Amino acid sequence: MQRILSSQLPAHPHETVTIAGWIRRRRLLKSVAFLIVRDAEGLSQVVVAEPETREQLEHLTEESVVEVIATVTPNEQAPGGVELTRPKIRVLSAVRSPLPFELHRPALAAALPTQLDHAALALRHPARRSALRIAATVTAGFRAALTEQRFVEIQTPKIVASATESGANVFRLDYFGRPAYLAQSPQFYKQLMVGVFERVFEVGPVFRAEPSDTARHLAQYTSLDAEMGFIADHRDVMATLTRTLAVMTEPLFEKPIVPAEIPAVHFTEALRIAGAPHDEPDLAPAHERAVGEWARREHGSEFVYVTGYPMRKRPFYTHPDPADPTYSNGFDLLFRGLEIVTGGQRLHTYEDYVEALTRAGEPLEPYGGYLDGFRYGMPPHGGWAIGLERFVARLTETPNVREVTAFPRDLHRITP
Amino acid sequence: MQRILSSQLPAHPHETVTIAGWIRRRRLLKSVAFLIVRDAEGLSQVVVAEPETREQLEHLTEESVVEVIATVTPNEQAPGGVELTRPKIRVLSAVRSPLPFELHRPALAAALPTQLDHAALALRHPARRSALRIAATVTAGFRAALTEQRFVEIQTPKIVASATESGANVFRLDYFGRPAYLAQSPQFYKQLMVGVFERVFEVGPVFRAEPSDTARHLAQYTSLDAEMGFIADHRDVMATLTRTLAVMTEPLFEKPIVPAEIPAVHFTEALRIAGAPHDEPDLAPAHERAVGEWARREHGSEFVYVTGYPMRKRPFYTHPDPADPTYSNGFDLLFRGLEIVTGGQRLHTYEDYVEALTRAGEPLEPYGGYLDGFRYGMPPHGGWAIGLERFVARLTETPNVREVTAFPRDLHRITP
């Protein structure tokens, strides 16, 4: 008999059906026993009145996998208005060890390290599953929005020859006897691919040998990258990003959370709003929170762009603001007071790259394959990178990014 | 004035428009000059009769990026039935170096290593762009087909603590002072996630420190992975894979290339078809080609499943064939005579894993986080992995996987 899902039960009253899933809970009362079975779609309640099935149930423990053949019986008190009666239970996989923590409570009670040690089990909790489903939803929305806007998906190398993008915080590996590094971002490659497709995006892992042990840093995270050519400046990039974020978040909320136009403040104005000294080179987390509060108060927006970061704090490929080249055409997007996107306009002429690298005291040779793209003609372009786990943590109001990551990697953790 | 794309020109006869793109070719005739501009959608022909514009054109070289404001003039001989006349040309990015090879010929004439050295340029050739677009199309189809079938997208770690899945061919890296490895596949993680979502998929990079220098091996490639629970055996996996492949390839061909049911032969029968000795443990490339030929001849199919590979050649997590446990419930899918997918049913009880690892002489401790999933209840399950670049190479009849990979990594190559 074909297995059906818990969500399909109400459509089969009085029929004999097969369900399958994990034992979420057993309740062994005196005259009757209840078995709650979890599957991909929800829960089913199984009523056990028969002595031999009850005895079988007494020997089964939570998270064992069972198949149940039973009759669908309407019962207003049961979840979905139906329960399963007169069950035959077949065990597909029996759990014989005690669970390290209980899964059926509203919140996981175990300490976070214990949860992460037993990620295969902890991820089955509804809160953890929900966060990962949200990650899948916004990722699908990212791709759908960009495909719709003529972006082409690319896959780029994660192993690179030189630690060029930023000297520190790279993982070094042995590449057939030669030193190599894990890519910190697809930045260079997505820019080169603008020369091929004009507009590209990539969803993939990036690696940061980040010595910070905080609630928002991971050694591997998922970056949602996009890059687009033939722009006037960074404002074209921001407009595309705003449209993309609207599609990404649309399925999650009844009322749209992305305004048609996200408020934007210049960096110098952001410092003023945050009450920071006017010569600060960057926004500290407390400043970001203050700007986030301001946007909510003044514009009713949970999102706010900060534009025009000082050139000295942005990477060498950043395009300066033509009106005042000490500031850049780079931006950050804050969501609920936290930076979740970095983006901007990039340099696009070969001459500008040579000058920028020379000014930074960098040799040109390690950048050879990258500079090739600009030597052979690149349009004005720009793009952004969204940190998926940070965004999902903020969307779900989860304090630690590790709680919305399937198997996080950090300074101390490399298993499971 | 808003830029329009080459494909939009026929909709604007006699209007003044702005286009932008790369100079594909110039033809400087005596009385008139032609400029062919390439953008994301195709080519535009610009006719230059004005002396000052012609002089400007004489100083511009191929691949320079230009913006052209001109009049759309119907001309039956021109591509798309229109050409651009009375142009004003603005240079967005001038190429001042000679190109290492020409891009406007039907095939790239440079040797493959030269193309790969200048990938940022070579990828602009129509043949290379087309292959990467096909990769994007089949990847999108993979996700669409699986999402439709209740699979949830996951992202899993690419840095792992032990080289457990297969001892050799792993890249070793320095993880905050400890040894670690790049994941050869998401196998263990996708299996664990069956315990969370029942059905999962992942599109991501996998890493093989593959010493083979062949036309079909890469050190990094894109793996299209899926895993599903509550199956009867590997045939449920094959049915889902067949449906998925049909969606993936549907946009590429006028006539569907995936039959409703892909022919399947048992390994022992495949050996007989290939004329190989009956005690061979695996299929050699020549055997795969022979089986591919047989499927085309006998079933009119370019795809053929080979099932029941001997257990001794499959990984420890492979489920044996209950009817004869020297053979497995593992399969390969051959496409045009080449293996492009490996899949099968996996073991699912904790006891079976302990026994399989013990039989293989493996300590249990490095598998701790993996075994956790089975200790705490896992349904019968199975899945597959498609090698994206190999599949695209076969689809486009390209001899070398490096030609369909944006920036390939192999034994000798780590740049650009």
UniProtKB/TrEMBL annotation, chains A, B:
Q: Where does L-aspartate bind?
A: E165, R208, T342, R346
Enumerate the Gene Ontology biological process terms.
Answer: aspartyl-tRNA aminoacylation
| Keyword field contains Nucleotide-binding | yes
The enzyme's main class, written as a single word, is ligase
Report the subcellular localization: Cytoplasm
Q: Where is this region: Aspartate?
A: 187-190
Keywords of the record: Aminoacyl-tRNA synthetase, ATP-binding, Cytoplasm, Ligase, Nucleotide-binding, Protein biosynthesis
- Name the chemical reaction catalysed here: tRNA(Asx) + L-aspartate + ATP = L-aspartyl-tRNA(Asx) + AMP + diphosphate
> Matching SUPFAM superfamilies, A to Z?
Class II aaRS and biotin synthetases (SSF55681), Nucleic acid-binding proteins (SSF50249)
Q: Which GO terms describe its molecular function?
A: aspartate-tRNA ligase activity; aspartate-tRNA(Asn) ligase activity; ATP binding; RNA binding
Q: Where is the Aminoacyl-transfer RNA synthetases class-II family profile domain?
A: 132-416
Transmembrane feature ranges: none
Q: What is its EC number?
A: 6.1.1.23
Q: Which GO terms describe its cellular component?
A: aminoacyl-tRNA synthetase multienzyme complex; cytosol
The entry's ATP-binding residues are: R208, A209, E210, R216, H217, L218, E339, G387, L388, E389, R390
Q: Where does the entry annotate site (Important for tRNA non-discrimination)?
A: P79
Which proteins does it associate with, and in what oligomeric form? Answer: Homodimer.
Which NCBIfam families does the annotation name?
Answer: PRK05159.1
Q: What is the annotated role of this protein in its UniProt record?
A: Aspartyl-tRNA synthetase with relaxed tRNA specificity since it is able to aspartylate not only its cognate tRNA(Asp) but also tRNA(Asn). Reaction proceeds in two steps: L-aspartate is first activated by ATP to form Asp-AMP and then transferred to the acceptor end of tRNA(Asp/Asn).
**Family to which the UniProt record says this protein belongs:** Belongs to the class-II aminoacyl-tRNA synthetase family. Type 2 subfamily.
Write down what this protein is called: Aspartate--tRNA(Asp/Asn) ligase
Originating species? Paractinoplanes brasiliensis
